[in-house]
Specification:
Blueprint (H helix, E strand, L loop, with lengths): L19 E3 L63 E5 L3 E3 L3 E8 L9 E4 L4 E3 L5 E5 L5 E6 L7 E6 L10 E6 L1 E3 L4 E6 L8 E5 L2 E2 L1 E6 L2 E5 L7 E9 L2 E2 L3 E11 L10 E9 L6 E6 L5 E3 L4 E5 L7 E8 L5 E7 L3 E2 L2 E2 L3
Parallel strand pairs: 3-9, 11-19
Antiparallel strand pairs: 1-25, 2-4, 4-7, 5-6, 5-8, 8-9, 10-12, 10-26, 12-16, 13-14, 13-17, 15-16, 17-18, 17-19, 19-20, 19-27, 20-24, 21-23, 21-25, 22-24
Length: 343
Amino acid sequence: MPSSTIGTMVRLRVFLLAVCALTWGATGAPEAFSQTPVQSAPRPTSSTPAPSPSVPTSSAPQTSAPSGSAPPQSAPLPAPPPASGARILLLPRLLVAGERATLAVLDVNGRLTPNVEVTFSNGDHLKTDATGRALFAAPLTPGVITAALPGRGGRVNSVVLAPAAIDAPGITVTTVPRVASISDRFDVLGQGFCGDADANSVTIGGQKALVLAASPMALVVLPPAEAEPGGARVEISCAKQTASPFQMTFVELALEADAAPLAHGEHRTLRVVVHGSAAKLTLEARNLAPDVAELVGGVSVKQATSGEAPNAAKFEVIGKKKGSFLISIRLAMLSGKPVEAPK
């Protein structure tokens, strides 16, 4: 992946938007109940990793310390997440035979995770680099290819298309979500994108978004940390080519739940309020720790929001034993043709 710099903009927030963590100590009191943003692994330069986004950088001249004084201490860079914590593999939904593409791996907190081995159904394997991503060439034979992480049962599918699928010059966007979350990734389908994720430029409301995974026909995009709920203009460019701007609606999901200890057999309601749209939307909750708490309705449950103020949906959990329970709640996105942005 080519050299790139990183600014304070690149702050990867948790993709499991409403992750509830309730941990009991010896007294049974909750130690944490939060929805804290997390940071991405630093993008590397050509030789050494770039500074973490949590450490602002400056082009201003640096003054030297007086003779005999101790040198200034720089803030330590956050340690990258361990490869053993890898949980989510992001693979572009569409690949082009023989063309370059980028995949990404995230841990349970949504952090890009380096040094993770990814295996493909055709026998190929690779490891993510310091950015938590990996650049690779798609197989030469069209068809379906699957990829997996070590020790994870699930596999991710991608369709490899013949080069003839790219039938026009320039960048064209064909499919995007009608509504997306400001804190969650979303897919963009089309053609003419760059397979190297960092070579694509995506802005949302004028703010630079982060491209997690990419191929000539698909992008996986994370909105910028500065994104606000409501309508926003989206612009995509690559290799001096620019797609027609389009409009998307972005929403924020706010989790409301009691932080008191959850006893064995006790029922607890998780209420999620949608800000930025009054439309009736579908939310999907997934139980990431079913041995600790039961999500009523199954491991994965979908609920529609009310479609009126407050635009909310409810999920219910039942305590099973002491420990931490994790319930991820995401917007179920419906995709369609892009809506042309206002002039």
